[in-house]
Amino acid sequence: MKGVVRFGVAMEGALLDQFDRHIHQRGYANRSEALRDLVRGQLAQAAWERGDRTVATITIVYDHHVRELTERLTAIQHDYGDNVVSSLHVHLNHHQCLEVIVARGQANVLKKMADEITRTKGVLVGNITAAPAGEGDE
Ligand code: NI
């Protein structure tokens, strides 16, 4: 790997044992790979908390029989038209729809949109997940 820097890490033996068991269960080939993912995850989480520009998915399940719900959800997504990249709709069963919305922009704006969508009457489940798309990632 290009530009890789090696460094030593001191850790209690018991903690390292736990870490090794954990990364073995997760299927990591080695500690370095696991540590890199942990660091990326932490940096992405910190960027998300600072409100940096990011990419996120908003996943909702809703009852499409609730009056005007589909129109309301569409109107919110149009309000955030600059942020919404794409959305995927799945007809789960006779009543329920699943929708995944991919959005990019300032984290606080994406959170606000997710809140508006999730609190809409008829939306049964809603969550937002930040994608670890930090700058400088290959
Ligand atoms: Ni549907």
Can you tag this structure with a few keywords?
Alpha-Beta Plaits, 138 residues, binds nickel (II) ion, alpha+beta, four-stranded antiparallel sheet
Could you characterize the architecture of this molecule?
With 138 residues, this protein is an alpha+beta fold. It folds into 2 domains: 13-49; 52-131, Alpha-Beta Plaits. Helices cover 41% and strands 28% of the residues. It contains 4 helices and 4 strands. The protein has helices at 13-26, 31-50, 69-79, 107-118, and strands at 53-63, 84-91, 96-106, 123-131. The chain has a 4-stranded antiparallel β-sheet with strand order 2-3-1-4. A hairpin with a 4-residue loop joins strand 2 (84-91) and strand 3 (96-106). It is elongated and about 60 Å long. The chain starts with 12 loop residues before the first helix and ends in a 7-residue tail after the last strand. The model has no long low-confidence stretch (mean pLDDT 90). The chain binds nickel (II) ion (NI). Nickel (II) ion (NI) binds at residues 64, 89, 91, 97.
CA-based gyration radius: 20 Å
As a percent range, the share of strand residues is: 25-35%
Identify the bound ligands. Answer: nickel (II) ion
Q: Report how far the terminal alpha carbons are from each other.
A: 11 Å
Q: What's the level 1 CATH class of the largest domain?
A: Alpha Beta
How many strands in all?
Answer: 4
Number of folding domains?
2
Q: Unreliable segments (pLDDT under 50, ≥5 consecutive)?
A: none
CATH homology-level superfamily of the largest domain = ACT-like. Chain A, domain 2
What is the CATH architecture annotation of the largest domain? 2-Layer Sandwich
What name is given to the CATH topology of the largest domain? Alpha-Beta Plaits
Large-scale geometry:
elongated
Number of helices: 4
